[in-house]
Design a protein that fits this description.
single chain, 562 residues, mainly beta, Leucine-rich repeat, LRR (right-handed beta-alpha superhelix), globular
């Protein structure tokens, strides 16, 4: 929102009860006179540009029920240096996310006995989880994720009888944890323990709650938790980065078939699905990540409305079924690093008007690339390298005006230099290495910009002849040295974050470059810092569901689920 301004000085006679400025461009320091607002009940300035120190006069705001200061530019402070929080005993909601808070969580927070929402996400908090926090009997949400907390999770956490959402992910918590300690909480719908140093024991876990969000990534699991068999409301499940091996059992496949939207089983040792059909049963699955396992057999086909499908780094074989063309809302398809063979489905250029990432590298696919890229093409990343593709570069790629990355290296493509690709305004990386390109590269047309944003071009190990035209190098401004301090890495999107249940991942652009007879893998490619990143995934989902003439997909943004 473009609304800008500073807070004025406040007089003691002011009857103001609510100040709500979240997601605006308000800036400056909070005035000391804010303590004069004795009738103030709600003060939320989430995601603004306020700076300086939080004034101690907040202690006068004894009627305050909602205090949300998250994601501003306040000076580094510790919670213990803000003792007035303990005096705001009427508080129901306290959210201090992303404020660069240091130090330990003070026990004085336990005085806020009316708290229902406490969120300290994304700070630098250290020490252990204070057992006194469990005295907050009305607490519905506790978010301590993305800090540096250590030690054991106190057993008294099971005393939070009203807790609905518990976020402890991405800390350094350690020790053995019995899952039943959480599952006896009848109101619990969100449990995120991912990415700590925990060993979660699940053998005797029986759930009294109806979980919606479950995050147990990197929890040293060696099997699927048995309580999943009885769950029918799950929407988001992350069991990635564990030691689960063997088949994915039918009991898991039959769990929450009508509700599941996000499933991440990556980085395990899974070998197959315990069913004969290649069709996966979850009707409303939007994101499926099966990458980095040992899955064999043909490519599983997710439901029609899937938007992001990752199955890279497995042992999948056979052809890519044309049934993949039914995924008309697909945004990302990554089947790289498998043993797939056969022909490329002709639909890959036009089956989805949403497809932005297509990664099929390092398989054994053999065919030409069909001329099926239409004017509706949204592709930004295409990697078909390290296959057995032949024929020419399809001229219809010129319709993909948003294309940034194209890798056709290590195939059998026989063509002249595709100078027409130079008309693509956003193309930054192109690799044609180790193919059968031939002829002269040729001079660019005078007065016309070819490859205006190119950062990397690899033509090595082909049959080109003649001289490299110097006119290209004179006009390729993006190849010139840039300030390293201002550089960022090329990526396509922030991983779909329908909740805080998984790591905030990015689809980084990677490339193997030939230089002086040697191959070198660049796992991250630098780009200019002024390149805008993609819109948030949930916005795209809303557009998709609107096109289906259904009600917009509403992703709950309250209670720290973003």
């Amino acid at each position: 929102m473009d609304l800008r301004g500073k807070l004025p000085e406040f007089h003691s006679c002011s009857p103001l009860q609510v100040i709500g400025l979240s997601a605006t461009s308000f800036y400056g320091e909070l005035p000391l006179s804010i303590g004069n607002l004795h009738s103030l009940e709600e003060f939320f300035i989430l995601d603004c540009n306020f700076r300086g120190y939080i004034p101690s006069s907040f202690e006068n705001l004894t009627q305050l029920k909602v205090l949300e200061l998250s994601y501003n530019n306040f000076s580094v402070q510790t919670l213990s240096s803000l003792p007035f929080f303990g005096k705001l005993t009427q508080l129901i909601s306290l959210k201090l996310d992303g404020m660069n808070l240091h130090g330990e969580i003070p026990s004085s927070i336990a005085r806020l006995t009316n708290l229902e929402y406490l969120s300290l996400h994304d700070n630098q908090l250290v020490g252990s989880i204070p057992s006194k926090l469990t005295k907050l009997a009305h607490l519905k949400l506790l978010d301590l994720s993305s800090n540096k907390l250590e030690g054991l999770i106190p057993n008294s956490i099971s005393d939070l009888r009203n807790i609905e959402h518990l976020f402890l992910r991405s800390n350094s918590l350690s020790g053995l944890v019995k899952l039943e300690m959480f599952l006896m909480l009848k109101h619990l719908t969100t449990l995120l323990l991912s990415f700590n140093n925990l060993t979660v024991l699940t053998s005797n876990a029986i759930s009294n709650s109806s979980l919606v969000n479950l995050g147990l990534a990197s929890c040293n699991l060696d099997n699927f938790p048995s309580f999943l068999n009885n769950q029918d409301r799950l929407k988001r499940v992350d069991l990635s980065h564990n030691h689960i091996n063997g088949q994915i059992p039918k009991s898991v496949l039959n769990s929450s078939v009508n509700t599941l939207m996000y499933l991440n089983l990556s980085y395990n040792s899974l070998t197959s699905f315990d069913q004969h059909s290649v069709f996966l049963p979850w009707k409303h699955l939007i994101t499926l990540d099966l990458s980095f396992n040992m899955l064999k057999g043909s490519v599983p086909i997710p439901p029609t409305y899937t938007c992001a499908y990752f199955a890279s780094n497995n042992r999948l074989v056979g052809e890519i079924s044309p049934l993949i063309c039914n995924l008309t809302y697909l945004w990302v398809l990554d089947l790289s690093n498998n043993n797939l063979d056969g022909v490329l489905p002709n639909c890959l250029g036009n089956f989805s008007n949403f497809l932005e990432v297509l990664n099929l590298q390092n398989n054994s696919l053999r065919s030409h690339i069909a001329e099926t890229f239409t004017n509706e093409c949204k592709l930004k990343f295409v990697d078909l390298s390290h296959n057995q593709l032949h024929g020419e570069v399809p001229r219809s790629l010129v319709n993909c005006t948003k294309l940034e990355f194209l890798d056709l290296g290590n195939n059998y493509i026989c063509d002249i230099f595709p100078s027409w690709l130079g008309t693509l305004p956003l193309l930054r990386v192109i690799s044609l290495s180790s193919n059968e390109f031939h002829g002269e590269v040729g001079n660019p047309v005078i007065g016309f910009k070819h490859f205006p944003n190119i950062h990397i071009i690899d033509l090595s190990h082909n049959n080109f002849r003649g001289k490299l035209p110097s006119l290209y190098f004179q006009t390729w401004e993006a190849l010139k040295i840039i300030d390293a301090d201002q550089a960022t890495y090329m990526l396509e999107f922030s991983y779909p974050t329908l909740s805080k249940m998984h790591t905030d991942m990015e689809y980084l652009y990677t490339l193997t470059i030939h230089n002086k007879g040697m191959e070198r893998l660049y796992p991250k490619i630098v780009q200019r810092s002024d390149i805008l990143l993609e819109a948030l995934f949930w916005i795209k989902l809303e557009l998709i569901w609107q096109q289906k003439k259904r009600s917009s997909l509403k992703i709950w943004s309250g209670a720290s689920l973003t």
